[in-house]
Amino acid sequence: MAKSGNKAKKSPAIAPSSNWKKLLPTITSKNEAKKRKTNEFEISPNYKGNKKRKLEELKALKKETKKEAEIPKKDDLWFGDDIEEEVLKNVYGNKTKKTISKEILVEKMNTADSKLGKFVAIDCEMVGVGPGGLDSALARVSIVNFNGAVLLDAYVKPLEKVTDYRTHVSGIQPKHLESDEAITFKEAQEKVATIIKNRILVGHAVYNDLKVLMLSHPTLLIRDTSRYKPFRKLAKGRSPGLKMLVKEVLGISIQAGSHSSVEDARFTIELYKNVKTEWEKSFGARSGLIMKKLKEKEEKSRNKKKVTVQKEATIIEEYSESEEESDSDSGSD
Fold first, then answer.
1. How far apart are CA 237 and CA 234, in angstroms?
2. Are 254 and 263 in contact (CB under 8 A)?
3. Which run of H or E residues covers position 312?
4. Where are the beta strands (DSSP E) in 130-266?
5. Cα 250 versus chain centre, distance
6. Nearest to 136 by CA among 100, 169, 110, 96
7. Coil, strand or helix: which one is 19?
8. Which is nearest to 192 in space by CA: 225, 215, 221, 165?
9. What's the start-to-end Cα distance of the chain, in Å?
10. How many Å is the maximal CA-CA distance in the chain?
11. 163-193: pLDDT as tens digits
């Protein structure tokens, strides 16, 4: 008996109608357009990444504004009368300033205002005296102001016989010390003492300069670039040379041949100006307070002298009048 093997017949595939074929390309293009649109979406203002970026921009703007605000007014500074507006901006303002060539800088110093001010930089050149020229004696002294203008530059006749001029280092030759323009040690000492009195004294290994001049100066008013910690770090904790510091910090080469005390003093004050804000912060308000007291003391001393002079003038005047009266009285007799 034959098995009944009826299998389910597959339904024949329905061919798409002609209308469907016409609609198919338009449906596909719409889907593709939707996909493209999702890839080209705009970032919402509330998106976290956008907010972060805006906060960073706001912080940067505040930082720039703060930098501008940090530049103090001349009237607010005890030394404000001695500094120009441009110098204030350079010292207290944004530090991202362009480096200047040595020639242009020296030219600016040569034409700078030579007023004294509250900051001076000193450098001395020495010669050797005594057996083998091992001991040092003053042979030249130079002092410049905050702008690098020369306040004093003089060759000095040593008190002892020179046994080593150290020309290759000092640049001093016999003709310099034998010249009529060379001053005595006492004159040099008095001139320096007058200039540095009650002022911030900047120098490189400045204690050597004071020692050879046989002068002292308040420690709080000394800025020694050889002892400034950030500068010493450049020399791995050792005392840095001035030539190396100027090259590293200012990008300028000095001391190509023998030394010049004017050049050394000028670039020492430039080093100080480069780090002045940070350096003075380390002293805090104490330094400014002492300077104010010194200034007040100086003013009182000046006023006292004026009063003394006025009193002397009054006494002389009264004496002259009494002499005239006595002369007239004797004439009448």
1. 7
2. yes
3. helix 285-332
4. 135-145, 150-157, 162-164, 183-184, 200-203, 222-224
5. 11
6. 169
7. helix
8. 215
9. 192
10. 192
11. 999 999 989 999 999 999 999 999 999 999 9
Q: Are 145 and 108 in contact (CB under 8 A)?
A: no
Long-range CB contacts (within 8 A, 24+) of 312-315: none
Task: Using the structure block, give the residue that is written with the tokens 């991202």.
Answer: 96
Q: What is the pLDDT of residues 292-320, one digit of tens each?
A: 677 677 677 777 766 666 666 666 666 56
Cα(236)–Cα(90) distance, integer angstroms: 28
Q: Cα angle vertex 140, ends 135, 144, to 5°? A: 130
> What's at 231, amino acid-wise?
F
How long is the chain? 333
Tokens 């709080």 locate to 220
Q: How far apart are CA 252 and CA 250, in angstroms?
A: 5
Tell the residue number behind the tokens 């009285």, with chain if given.
329
Coil/strand/helix, residue 145: strand
What is the SS3 assignment for 179-206? Answer: CCCCEEHHHHHHHHHHHHCCCEEEECCH
Instruction: For residue 227, count CB atoms less than 10 angstroms from its CB and return exposed for 0-12, middle for 13-18, buried for 19 or more.
Output: middle
The two beta strands, 119-129 and 135-145, are: antiparallel
Query: CA separation (Å) from 315 to 303, 305, 321, 323, 327?
Result: 18, 15, 10, 12, 18
